[in-house]
Amino acid sequence: EETAHPCLSISEDGFTMFYGDEELTQWLNNWDFQDFHFMNVNMYIVSVLGDLIPVRGRHYWEVEVDDGTEFRIGVAYMDTERSSYLGANNTSWCMRHILTPTRKWSQLQYFEHMITVNPVRIGVALDYERGTLSFFNVDLEQHLHTFHCHFQSYVHPCFGLDNPGALTVHNSIEGL
């Protein structure tokens, strides 16, 4: 919760994040310009970092998304600028799902992957030794994208909502 945007609600078990129009409106009415917490001022994207992932081995988790939710999921270094877009810098690697008439799944750094079925569960696989971060549509058993990067230090899973909705993290598996 330390890294969560002020208008995010985190479930008691720490596995679900959500916000709605009411939380955003209330937060904007009380906004302090020095309190960015991973939020772009123009787009009102709210984000949070998860618990630290040890720098070794392979790690896998799944994220369940509400229908109609635009989101970002991936990993980030702790020192990622709080006012930057997650996935649009050299300290975070994220996939972004945006809703368009063609349901486009895209990553901010010029990669686009067109999809026709809105994902319900996204699998995320991090392999420190291979230097890969891969994303999958779990329900369709479909590979979406793999980043190749030799991570220089610990990373945190990161999650962002581009519009009101919810994300829930499931079955973290370490040391595969």
TrEMBL record:
It holds the Pfam family SPRY. It comes from the Eukaryota. InterPro entries: B30.2/SPRY, B30.2/SPRY_sf, Butyrophylin_SPRY, ConA-like_dom_sf, E3_ligase_FN3/SPRY, SPRY_dom. Residues 1-176 form the B30.2/SPRY domain. This is Fibronectin type III and SPRY domain containing 2.
